[in-house]
Write a structure and sequence with these properties.
Helix content: over 70%
CATH class of one domain: Mainly Alpha
Radius of gyration: 39 Å
CATH architecture of one domain: Alpha Horseshoe
Shape: rod-shaped
Strand order of the largest sheet: 1-2-3
CATH superfamily of one domain: Tetratricopeptide repeat domain
CATH topology of one domain: Serine Threonine Protein Phosphatase 5, Tetratricopeptide repeat
Oligomer: single chain
Structural class: mainly alpha
Number of helices: 23
Distance between the termini: 114 Å
Length: 453
């Protein structure tokens, strides 16, 4: 019984036997100026047909397996007294199923049963089964939504509906299922987790993190490794705009609880890579490699970050993991980082030719011989070594140094070889620097003769 907006009453009625699968239900609204006494009579009149049909409907149910023809006659009699009587239609649906009737026949009976008794979860369940067998996802979703309105506190049903909606590619409906459950029970951690799954399917990552934080608030005991992995992944998305604050927060918590988990340490290294400080990212990557060196992507991300900060030489200890454990693609990626970091060091401003040569040498070794990366690495190496020859020349003469003369000779040979291998990167520049190398050859040979006795 409830009051309507106009102040009148409305009553929801249902007539059903204690063990019956369905019955009959209706809603009666009080008319304007209708007395409560007349309203009560009107409500009773609405159920007159249902009560009259009840005996025949029960007779159908009792006879459906032993005397199905008599059962059908009883059901039809019940339906004459009360159209859409839930139990009578449900019974006809069961008989039709036993007789292998077409699916549409079964659907018609079960749908009529739900029309007559919208509160019959059994009738809705049978209707859902028939729609599922027809692969009718639209009607299956609709029926499950009705079932949840009938039994809103039925947690197994809610979880079943959620999984079904996800499988049908209806994450919005799945999210609604979770939210409707949370409106009833806001402290249900499982429902918050279900909502997070729907948000992830929708790629609504802030929503997923919000829901998972509620899981932690409601029941922190559920914060296992799966939880920390899920919330860290959600906070790290999308890659071009992650939630850096919450990513670092939850990755830190996960790594603190599972300090030897490669997954948790990888999340933490990635989070530091986004949020900083960079030194912390490097430290965590080193911890990660001690635990699990199977995935070198965190290593390469830290190397890239150090290179972007113009600290690539500090990445050499991390690079050793790539050199020792990396696949060809890992090494190639590292080589690209090194070449890109070496190029600016060739310019007059901030020039560091020995450092550029060191990076290029590593890149040559790491890259695929003859490939584009290898060609570029050799070209950079050729320039970095050739440009050192004029710088060393004055020091050799001033100190009459055999050691520096020998170093210059080694650089000369290295430059010649590298420029030849990297010629296709920039043929005209390679030829220009090759002339420089050739011009220094006799001078260096004379220095060796003069100072190395």
């Amino acid at each position: 019984l409830a009051r309507t907006e106009g102040g009148r009453y409305a009553v929801q009625l249902r007539a059903i036997g204690i063990s019956d699968k369905a019955g009959y239900g209706t809603t009666v609204a009080q008319l304007p100026n209708q007395s409560l006494e007349d309203f009560g009579r009107a409500a009773a009149d609405e159920l007159r047909g249902a009560f009259k049909a009840l005996d025949d409907a029960k007779k159908c149910w009792d006879l459906q397996t032993t005397k199905p023809d008599d059962a059908v006659k009883a059901a039809l009699s019940a339906l004459r007294d009360q159209p859409n009587h839930g139990l009578a239609e449900y019974c006809l649906g069961e008989i039709a199923a036993a007789r292998k009737a077409p699916a549409d026949t079964l659907i018609a009976h079960y749908a009529a049963a739900t029309k007559g008794d919208p509160q019959s979860l059994d009738a809705w369940s049978q209707l859902a089964i028939e729609y599922q067998q027809k692969n009718d996802s639209t009607n299956t979703v609709r029926v499950f939504q009705e079932m949840l309105r009938v039994a809103p506190t039925n947690q197994p049903l809610r979880e079943q509906a959620f999984r079904l909606f996800i499988n049908y590619g209806r994450p919005e409906a799945a999210k609604q299922v979770a939210e409707e459950g949370l409106a009833i029970d806001p402290t249900n951690a499982d429902l918050w987790d279900l909502k997070s799954n729907a948000c992830l399917f929708l790629e609504d990552f802030p929503c997923a993190v919000d829901a998972l934080e509620q899981v932690f608030t409601v029941d922190s005991a559920k914060a296992d490794s799966l939880f920390y992995n899920k919330i860290s992944v959600a906070a790290s998305q999308p890659p071009d705009k992650p939630d850096t604050v919450r990513f670092l927060k939850w990755a830190s918590k996960g790594a603190a609880k599972y300090p030897t988990s490669g997954t948790m340490l990888a999340h933490l290294a990635n989070a530091y890579g986004y949020a900083g400080p960079l030194d912390s990212a490097v430290a965590v990557v080193q911890r990660l490699m001690a635990v699990d060196s199977s995935d070198l992507r965190p290593v390469l991300r830290s190397i890239q970050a150090l290179a972007a900060a113009k600290r690539v030489q500090e990445a050499f200890p991390l690079g050793e993991y790539v050199e020792r454990l990396g696949e060809a693609d890992d090494k190639q990626n590292y080589a690209v980082i090194l070449v890109n970091a070496a190029l600016p060091l060739l310019q007059q401003e901030g020039q560091d030719l020995p450092a550029a040569a060191t990076m290029a040498r590593k890149a040559v070794v790491l890259s695929v011989s003859g490939g584009r990366v290898a060609v570029n690495a050799n070209y950079v190496l050729g320039l970095a070594t050739a440009l050192q020859l004029p710088q060393l020349d004055q020091a050799i003469m001033d100190g009459k140094s055999c050691e520096l003369a020998q170093k210059s000779q080694a650089l000369l040979e290295e430059a010649a070889t590298a420029l030849a291998a990297g010629e296709s990167a920039n043929a005209s520049a390679a030829a220009q620097y090759q002339k420089l190398v050739d011009g220094f050859r006799p001078r260096i040979e004379s220095q060796i003769k003069a100072f190395c006795k």
